[in-house]
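Exercise 7b. Backbone tokens:
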């Protein structure tokens, strides 16, 4: 589905690899609600065949949380109950004049990035208590 685009630096401590993708829901999104998570507020979605996992980290030091979602066409429904949100929040993918993303029924908008940002292996290991060798 995706071809490696090369390494990309993400603001902050973590490094990441960027991937191009064709699925409208599969990718990295910027949550416009920067007050809740800081800058940048990246939401990663792994989507395939109508099912998706949305990985969310609301604060830089928080552990990531995986949210389950289903999509059909441009409609998506996600279960944000683990984070105190709706069990069935509805969203709709939009693509207007080059801007694209998800508009959620609670009024939030996530703007889709042109590339998908994925964690480097040591960034993923750090999440589970392991450290990068020095």
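Sequence design result:
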């Amino acid at each position: 589905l995706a071809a490696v685009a090369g390494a990309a630096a993400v603001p902050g401590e973590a490094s990441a690899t960027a991937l191009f993708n064709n699925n409208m829901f599969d990718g990295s999104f910027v949550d416009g609600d920067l007050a809740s998570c800081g800058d940048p507020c990246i939401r990663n979605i792994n989507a395939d065949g109508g099912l998706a996992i949305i990985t969310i980290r609301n604060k830089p030091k928080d552990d990531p949380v995986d949210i389950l979602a289903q999509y059909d066409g441009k409609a998506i429904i996600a279960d944000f109950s683990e984070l105190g949100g709706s069990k069935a929040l509805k969203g709709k993918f939009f693509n207007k004049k080059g801007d694209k993303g998800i508009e959620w029924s609670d009024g939030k908008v996530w703007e889709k990035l042109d590339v998908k940002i994925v964690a480097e292996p040591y960034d993923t290991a750090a999440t589970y208590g392991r450290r990068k060798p020095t």
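Instructor comment: Residues 1-15, 124-133 have pLDDT under 50 and may be disordered. Residues 121-127 form the longest helix (7 residues).
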